[in-house]
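Pasting as-is:
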Amino acid sequence: MDRTMLLGVEGIKKTILHGGTGEFPRFITGTKVTFHFRTQLCDAERTVIDDSKVAGMPMEVVIGNMFKLEVWETLLSSMRIGEVADFWCDVTHTGLYPLVAKSLRRIAEGKDPVDWHLHTCGMANMFAYHSLGYDNLDQLQKEPQPLYFVLELIQVQQPSEYDRETWALSDEERMKAVPVLHGQGNKLYKLGRYQEAANKYKEAIVCVKNIQHKEKAWEAPWLKLEKVGNMLTLNYCQCLLRLEEYYEVIEHTSDIINQHPGEMKAFYVRGKANMEVWNQSEAQADFKKVLDLDPGMKKAVRKDLAVLNMRMEEKNQEDKLKYKGMF
């Protein structure tokens, strides 16, 4: 084991646990780095906070892509392929770890890394305490402290050696990708390929939200992105209606309505979803709000209400027959 050494960056110490092979890779902007990590507290037991091997998936970052935990780029750039190293990092480098860890855990759990209902930027959230949904991360957020990162460098790919997914794009590239993904989603929806269309809209939403989180909430650039994100989310919800994911539709449209109570289409889409899950009063309230916001929707709403009333009558008749012999 090599002795602990400074990397030439204040607040970082490195110990090589297992030497790598070959020359140092080229870590230029756009390089994709694949690695395993284990995060530990600086206590006597070196308590493990996160472990990518336990989660079952390695981590990937793209150099120069404004990854929130910038120190990981610095650490990885000091390593060879196959190397395992232990890094002590002081609190100046670890303050944003709770937010990063939350996203990584959500990915490992099969959830979206970005909370669509979150309407404040990440930095603001760091200074205005709120729960991240994990007790140990909440504690780290309230009381930032030094951490150990044990990293294993698996692979380094230059920009020309891999197909770049949207998460690996720069903000400028993401903005260019959004209308392309939107158009692809529209075409797939018209072809009746609703799951594929939903995936395209979802990818575009994540692009928008990743950029939006770097803007100051409720200022002009943020509001412009908010409008685009809401439009894409409503298109995504239209796909979910076709896929019969009604409760997810209600969740997403309610998030929009809570922030933007004048968004007529959100009420209409939520009304359609409420209608499908037999929420009669909720659906009626949503359709009434649609007419308040846009009287021109009267014909469409009247048709939907007629279908709702017919279904409720049929359901009531079925219930009567079902319970007829029980009393």
